[in-house]
Amino acid sequence: MSESLCKFETSDSNDEDIKASSHLAVQFDSSVNIGARAQRPALSRHLSVSSTVSSLDIRKHVEPQVALPPIFKTLSYKVDDETEALERSKIDKSARSFKQNTWHCQSAAEVAKSLSTDLKNGLCDAQYREHCKEFGANVLSPPRTNWLKKIIVYFFGGFGLLLMVGGILCCICWKPLGNPNPSLSNLVLGVVLLMVFLLQAFFNFWQDFSSSQVMKSINSMIPSTVPAIRNGLFTTCEAKDLVPGDLILIKNGDRLPADVRFVSSESSEFSFDRSILTGESKPIHATVKADSKDSNYLESCSIGLQGTFCVGGSGCGLVVATGDNTVFGQIARLSSDPKKGTSPLQRDIIRFVVCIVLVMLILLVIVCIVWGAYLRKHYPEWINVPELIVDLVSVFVSFIPEGLPIALTTCLMITAGVMKKNKILCKSLNIVETLGSVSVLCSDKTGTLTKNKMSVVSHTVGCAILDPQACTKGQWKVSQLSKLCNSSVFDPTTLSRPLNERVISGNATDQAIYRFGYELSEDDMPCN
């Protein structure tokens, strides 16, 4: 077989040799196989006691999962499909509305055509009136309030209902059940219970009022006036009067009054700070070009979101969304709308109240049974019906911790006040109690754990490292250049404050250099 194979693999052999060698190889293998099978003895099986026992023993130790492996393939597909369908059904309407926004995927001319406006002259008076009727004012809608539900919760939340019932029963025991000799102590007890009932309702109202102040804080983040172009003329209009299609001018330090689509840029440094929405302190460079169709509206560099700051450059933009339709408006609505469900502390209080009420009802039943079965028969003049009612009220009042809701509300309000002094605004007291149960808090560094503020501590001119506070002529020139070669400016409303407390527009680096330029005044200029 080896010779035939060698002939088959040799490159200089002819076709006949190859055919012969391959034929021989096949014939040789077949003959070998046939011969081997012919020499093997015929197989046979002889049953014996040992073979039977051994086979039974083997079968006895076979695990069922080995012979019948479980199959979960069909079930897992169903579970995955149902889970995905459930997740898709939970997608928020706001997220779907953002996905439908395509302003960032259209060119500036297409956006202007869609909004019936002009990229140079802005809206005319007729178009502005039509847009006002269609889109309304550029204001955030106040949160919806169900006053009837709120009043019921104010008065009857917690132990309020029990306190009111107890107070009314004590007053009834004074008169008319107490006639002809009414006991003044019953009246006093009833008045005290009703006063505690009203005091608890007041504290519930104060808690809700404090949380409702968040909306005012959010509205204060929107500028009051905006430079715009209408009918081809420059004008300054109120931010609440802006409508989609308005052409507004944006410069360094301005806060955007609405969601805009950038249509022109006068500087390559045209950038915005979105940290108020995203928490990211790094400025985003604005672009005029349209994004791809699969890009995200919230991450687009051609869209300026309401409430964000311009930290560099200047340009123009078309208003594409106002009021509640902006991203800022959607976030404001989510933060102001009441949340469904109860907090962990509220669930614990409800569980505690239910346990107390059950124990109280059991004791009240025991008192009534003892009075009706024993005291009423053997001592009929000792406890009459009015005194029995007062005793029952005393029993459940002794079980009710009337000061618990007030104490909890007071503690949470004090904590919220301390957090507010540290510039942490809580929209409700439930957030305070939830934060108290946090063991690990994950947060970014810049702008959260730090202030995102820089200051010049030293600088280098050539190979020399200089002290910014040194009063030399060269230092003074460097400080003046820091003011001139800088796009940052002071906020006019903060010029009366000390230098370190003034508000400066621009990124953190420009602010530090600009503030350094004013640390040395003209009076500090050396003579030499």
UniProtKB/TrEMBL annotation:
Single GO MF annotation: ATP binding
Keyword 4Fe-4S: no
Source domain of life: Eukaryota
GO BP of this protein: intracellular potassium ion homeostasis; intracellular sodium ion homeostasis; potassium ion import across plasma membrane; proton transmembrane transport; sodium ion export across plasma membrane
Subcellular location, principal: membrane
Topology in the lipid bilayer: Multi-pass membrane protein
Signal peptide feature range: none
Keywords, sorted A to Z: ATP-binding, Cell membrane, Membrane, Nucleotide-binding, Transmembrane, Transmembrane helix
PROSITE patterns attached to this UniProt entry: ATPASE_E1_E2
Transmembrane region(s): 151-177, 183-206, 349-374, 394-419
UniProt xrefs under InterPro entries: ATPase_P-typ_cation-transptr_N, ATPase_P-typ_cyto_dom_N, ATPase_P-typ_P_site, ATPase_P-typ_TM_dom_sf, ATPase_P-typ_transduc_dom_A_sf, ATPase_P-type_domA, Cation_transp_ATPase_P-type, HAD_sf
Location(s) in or outside the cell: Cell membrane
Keyword field contains Transmembrane helix: yes
Every Cation-transporting P-type ATPase N-terminal domain range: 102-175
Any matching Pfam family: Cation_ATPase_N
SMART domains registered for this protein in UniProt: Cation_ATPase_N
This protein's name: PMR2 protein
Species: Cyberlindnera jadinii (strain ATCC 18201 / CBS 1600 / BCRC 20928 / JCM 3617 / NBRC 0987 / NRRL Y-1542)
